[in-house]
Structure formats: C-alpha cells, structure tokens
C-alpha cells in the first residue's frame, strides 16, 4: 500500500467514525465519494476516497468497533462501573422514583455520604485489585499493617 493509499484509507475511517459519533445514517456515505471528488479536485486523497454505505458499515463493524470494545473491556477491568438507566426522560415530580431522588438530595447528609464515598472509593478499588491478583498479596499488606500491643 502506497503512502497515498494509506492517507485515503485513514480519511475513510475518520469519516466513518465521525458519522457514528454524530449518529448520521450510513446511507449518507453513498453521497460522500462523489461530493469529495467534485469539491476537492486537486486532492489525491479525495479523488481516491471510495467509501459508500456498505464499506462504511464494514469499517465500523469489522475494524473500529472491535478496537473500541477491547479498549472498553480493559477500562472496565481496571475500574468499578455501573450501568444505571431506565431509558426514560420523564421527570414528572409525581413519579415515585423521581420523588425519592428529590428527597435524597434535599437531605444535607447526602452530601456528606457522597463526599465520604468519593474519598474512600480509591482505597477500596486498590484493595479489590490486590485481592484479585493471581499471586498472594498478603506480604504486601503485612508491611502496611502495624500491630500495637
């Protein structure tokens, strides 16, 4: 693959990723190749750009998505995470779920609880990672704990 072909492939991937980021239907990609060729006649990258909806779909599903999925899995292994959603954008104050949230966040102790949680989470995360190791890590903890008699 020549340097110019590599630049063109890179442009095709960047356009495909931008379409996903902005939720643009892949059918729009059918119009990009002719448009780029017409608008950027002096650009060899634009002249070589050939990524319609089928190729764009393939780029995302077969190349880009697996990369980001692998990256996400690695991040999820390193840090705690949670998935909390009900898919609703209804914020009617009469709903019990919304009322419970309003009650919880109007309580001044909620801020204290959240600050405590924020301060202790890194310690518990590190401890959890120590316990998940394949090798025993008790010798590491032994040096940290001082017994007073």
Rounded to an integer in angstroms, the radius of gyration calculated over CA atoms is 26 Å
Distance between the termini: 72 Å
Number of helices: 7
Order of helices and strands: HHHHHHH
How many domains comprise the coordinates?
A: 2
Structural class: mainly alpha
What is the helix fraction of residues, given as a range?
55-70%
Major beta sheet, specifics? none
Q: Identify low-pLDDT runs.
A: none
Shape: elongated
Strand content: under 5%
Compute the average pLDDT: 80
Q: What is the β-strand count?
A: 0
Q: Which terms would index this structure?
A:
single chain; 149 residues; 2 domains; 0% strand
Could you characterize what this model shows?
- By secondary structure, the protein is mainly alpha-helical.
- The protein folds into two domains: 3-78, no CATH class; 96-144.
- 69% of the residues lie in helices and 0% in strands.
- It has seven helices and no strands.
- It has helices at 3-21, 29-39, 44-48, 53-78, 96-106, 108-131, 138-144.
- Helix 1 (3-21) packs across helix 4 (53-78).
- The longest helix is centred in the middle third of the chain and has 26 residues, at 53-78.
- The protein is elongated.
- The N and C termini lie far apart (72 Å).
- The mean pLDDT is 80.
């Amino acid at each position: 693959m020549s340097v110019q072909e590599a630049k063109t492939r890179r442009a095709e991937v960047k356009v495909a990723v931008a379409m996903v980021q902005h939720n643009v239907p892949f059918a729009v990609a059918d119009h990009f190749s002719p448009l780029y060729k017409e608008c950027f006649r002096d650009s060899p990258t634009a002249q070589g750009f050939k990524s319609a909806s089928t190729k764009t779909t393939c780029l995302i599903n077969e190349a880009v998505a697996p990369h980001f999925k692998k990256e996400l899995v690695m991040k999820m292994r390193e840090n705690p995470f949670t998935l909390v959603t009900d898919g609703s954008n209804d914020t009617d104050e009469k709903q019990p779920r919304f009322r419970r949230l309003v009650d919880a966040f109007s309580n001044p102790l909620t801020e204290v609880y959240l600050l405590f949680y924020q301060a202790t989470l890194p310690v518990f995360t590190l401890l959890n990672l120590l316990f998940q190791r394949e090798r025993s890590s008790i010798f590491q903890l032994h040096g940290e704990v001082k017994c007073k008699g």
